[in-house]
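Worked example

This section walks through a single chain of length 551. The input is the sequence exactly as stored; nothing has been trimmed or padded.
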Amino acid sequence: MASLLSSDKNINFDGNYSPLKTSLFLLVCIAWLLPGLTGHTPWKYDEAVSQGIVHGMLHGGSWLSPTLAGEPYFAHPPLYYWVAACFARWFGEFIPVHDAARLASGFFMALTMVGVALGAHALWGARAMRVAVIVLIGSVGLLLRAHEMSTDLSFLAGVTLTLAAIPLARSQSIIAGALGGLGLGIAFLSQGTLALGLLFPLTVLAPVLISDYWPKHPLRYAFFWVLCALPFFVLWPVALYLQSPVLFSQWWRILVQPMLHPNHWLAEDMNPTYYLGVAAWFAWPATPLALWALWESLRRGFANAAVRFLILVLVEMFLVLGFSTHPHESGALPLLIPLSLLAAGSIDSLRRGATSALDWFGMLTFGMVTLLLWLGWIAQLTGSPVGIVHYLDAQLPGYHATFQPVAFGASLLLTLLWIIAILNSRQSSRRALVNWTVGMTLSWLLAMTLWLPYIEASRSYKDMMQSLGRAIPAQHGCVASTGLGEAQRALLDYYLNIRTQRIENDLGKTCRLWLVQSRPRDAFEVPQGWRLLWTGARAGDKSERFQLFGY
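Given that input, the structure is written out below as tokens.
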């Protein structure tokens, strides 16, 4: 092994370009991005809601104002759903519609990677481009969310493009203006007013406070910025107004009035310190590397303009997110961009001891995860080790694994390639990051090959919906409902083409079928005259119970 590690053929992650390293970088990005985008049904929460909205668009619903199971949905503007519906229409004949729609997430994540690479190049130079992307996709909190249908991903892409445009403007004013306007428009049509509060102050203040990033041609930059942002702010609202002034007024109250009334700028349940705590693990290992960059910059009096810019971004984001949003882990996604860019700029200054610690921690962590994934899969097939089998059975009773030769062969090959890659890379700070991200990618690949049937059985509503469908009479008329969540209403529409009349909305009083969602431990008194036709739940789910009654 020693001779192998000292061989001249070892991969030297020094930041310089070569065809081999560029190919390996692209391979890691693709291996991280593609698995999980297809091969499973919609999982709750965001996936189910997004698929329900896309299903409505593809079956006669409005493209200008999204609907969920026939009811207007105002939580998010429609950009992500437009893109997902387009992918579903283009590729839905070849793969399941929900898989085709989920390709939109891959598209926006690829756009985010490109934006991070451009931002790293503008801030630090060409040697930082690949490592910035590696840090981003190695972030613990991003992995699962990057493969779900969610407006958070289009919002993240918009944030990334806008931030990359600010330092780029000092050399490429026209390109930067177009990129910044496009990014702000994407962010606005993904999350609404949050995009303006998060990005507009940075776009205006950063060049003023940090003179190094004053645009080379300010008027050109501003012109193309407005030119590319304007369609996102004008075309959709105008088209919506022409189609339905009532719906337009409802969107206006959501998207515009909060900006005009400062008393609406603060969230009722704001928690200013929440995202500081979340960032500690959500952005690992970007967070400790970013802290190292701040420490090194402090010793130099914050002389580097790139560091000052990223500090401004982080401070502004922590303030806006902390005071203006409901505390939620997915809200921390924008923080990954400045933290990854900070980490990319400081990676070559990381001391040998810290590099070795990160490298060994990553190899041990994902080595252990890989071993457990293999042991758990073997236990499902062979019944041994018994302790693992008992644990898995308790989580998902009645599940029986089957041997899948293609998944097994691919997983074994990937595991061997990971081991070979570790043995054939020279020790460096960049190697530590690559090993971390490759280890995380391998764990994700194993989960999406060996473990996907188990995960699908535990998270999918498909079997439950099919069972419910068999219990509903062919000529059933309307169905009333109580307690159905947005995800469940969306999937009921997607799988069974049933849009219930919700009793919460004072509807369904004449329906002779009644679907109730509740918790198993909750007592439920059945009104006189109703009889239980069916009861069910998602496999292994102990928090939901569904009951169908007939009158």
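What to look for: Residues 352-382 form the longest helix (31 residues).
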